[in-house]
Specification:
Rossmann fold; Crotonobetainyl-CoA:carnitine CoA-transferase CaiB-like acyl-CoA transferase; 402 residues; formyl-coa transferase, domain 3; 2 domains; alpha/beta; 17 helices
């Protein structure tokens, strides 16, 4: 079955998380993604990992997570011979994606104008930390730095402790989604007009956009968020919105529900005097403490059953392993796997979007460095002798599968 983006070719110069996640999402939908890596070392994420361990003894979980359904070619971008080959490839490509610091690729001859000169229909998506210009253009644009700068970090954690970064690369992943949003919009525009264009995405702008309700609140209500000293889940919210302990050492989240429904469900009528909006906000830490004393009288699953029966918005707090085994996660088939030539069976998250006519799918493992270089160049008409010359000069490397 054809996929939604079958026939779309992407030259992917991106590395780390933002760009690779974006191109993986497009690859899941059928786009042909040619990952152009640095000769020798490849994507920087290949050398980074969690827990100081490697999947299968050699492969990075960080890289494996964001690079399925792609083919890799590893080239020396400083080589003029390589530049010529890539420009030939660009004549048949639809999209270029890159997330180097502003100006880096352009200096090597791989900027938007360079690609547009050989293919006016090209869509060139550039990702950065802070945009293509401005006072921060030379700064490193890393996820946690953006969380701090944009205001997310200051909103997270308890008020009597330091701010807490999100436990995932939220700025990078939001940036990836914005890349996809821009690319798909540009593809639609090109279908109507025949014109390509340049897309600029940056982590700071994306993070700001996803903090829209917080900015609207602060800038229009004349108040600043102050983190609570309890498990309240947002610095602008009143009790009981937050995280609560249970008798068996677990935790649950409680979101929106009438406070009366909650204290009646907990058999805690002594909480009734707190039941008005102003009090639930001004005394939220004290209310959280009193509610927490009640939730600790129940085991987690018993408490959840009781609250769900009362239509209280609640959920368990799972760690990654427990979430992967959650009945709803299992039902949705969100834990998938692929076979990797060195890492073996790799468990991954399945595509999150369902489509009735063109369903996304996992069809390739994350590639080895330059694994598909020879076959890619042959498809673009490069001779065996030229390929051998590239390898001999060190302008292309190919890591062989076992």
């Amino acid at each position: 079955m054809d996929k939604a983006l079958s026939g779309v070719t992407i030259l992917d110069f991106s590395h780390l998380l933002q760009g690779p996640f974006a191109t993986q999402l497009l690859a899941d939908m059928g786009a042909e993604v040619i990952k152009i890596e640095r000769a020798g070392s490849g994507d920087m994420f290949r050398g980074m990992t969690f827990f100081a361990k490697w999947v299968g003894g050699s492969e990075s979980p960080n890289f494996l997570a964001w690079n399925r359904n792609k083919r890799s070619i590893a080239l020396n971008l400083k080589s003029r011979r390589v530049h010529g080959l890539i420009m030939e490839m660009a004549k048949k490509a639809d999209i270029v994606v890159q997330n180097f610091r502003p100006g880096v690729l352009a200096k090597l001859g791989y900027g938007y104008e360079d690609f547009r000169a050989v293919n006016p229909r090209i869509i060139y998506c550039s990702g950065s930390g802070y945009g293509e210009d401005g006072p921060y253009v030379e700064r490193p644009g890393q996820d946690m730095l953006i969380q701090g700068l944009a205001g997310l970090l200051a909103n997270t954690g308890r008020g009597d402790m330091p701010p807490v970064p999100a436990g995932s690369g939220m700025a990078d992943q939001i940036g990836a989604m914005n890349m996809v949003y821009g690319i798909l919009s540009a593809l639609y525009y090109r279908e109507k007009t025949g014109k390509g264009q340049k897309i600029e995405v940056n982590l700071l702008a994306g993070m700001l956009a996803h903090l829209a309700q917080e900015y609207v609140g602060v800038l229009n209500l004349g108040e600043d968020f102050v983190r609570p000293n309890s498990g309240i889940g947002h610095p602008g919210m009143q009790a009981p919105f937050g995280v609560y302990e249970t008798k068996d050492g677990g935790y649950v989240t409680i979101a929106m529900s009438p406070f009366r429904t909650l204290y009646e469900t907990l058999d805690a009528p002594h909480l009734a005097p707190y039941d008005d909006l102003a009090t639930l906000f001004s005394q939220r830490d004290a209310v959280w403490q009193k509610v927490n004393e009640e939730t600790k009288k129940f085991d987690r699953d018993d408490l959840l059953e009781r609250m769900l029966d009362a239509d209280i918005w609640c959920a368990p707090v799972n760690d990654i392993r427990r979430a992967a085994e959650d009945p709803q996660v299992t039902h949705m088939g969100m834990i998938a796997s692929y076979e990797h030539p060195k890492a073996g069976t790799v468990k991954v998250i399945a595509p999150a979007v369902r489509m009735s006519e063109t369903p996304p799918a996992i069809e390739r493992p994350a590639p080895l460095v330059g694994e598909h270089g020879r076959e890619i160049l042959k498809e673009f008409g490069v001779s065996d002798d030229e390929i051998a010359a590239l390898e001999a000069a060190g302008d292309m490397t190919v890591e062989e599968a076992r």
